[in-house]
Amino acid sequence: MYPDARIGISYGVPTYWAKSGRVGLAYWSGGVSFYPFGGDYLDEFRAEHPTIKTSKGTINFKVSEKVPVMALKKIIRQSIEHPHHPVKP
Fold first, then answer.
1. Is pTM, for the whole model, over 0.90?
2. Domains in the chain, start-ordered, CATH in brackets?
3. Could you identify which of 5, 20, 30, 80 might form a hypothetical disulfide with 86, taking C-beta atoms 3.0 to 4.6 angstroms apart as the criterion?
4. Is residue 58 within 8 Å of 33, Cβ to Cβ?
């Protein structure tokens, strides 16, 4: 989606920066956590996918869960194109 994204660490999480936004992705023993760095991006996701665990600013995918790719792409676009906490390029 963003081939020019830079990779680094933010808050101890592997993070991809593009434009003025960012998203993070971390692995844990049971799956993957996705960090859009903006909690209200997740409201629609929570409503559409109530069985997938979320917290204030994280989506936790278990290994056994199917990842809703289109919904995840939408959150990535929102996080990169309209960040709540813009970062300097």
1. no
2. 6-79 (3.90.1150.200)
3. 20
4. yes
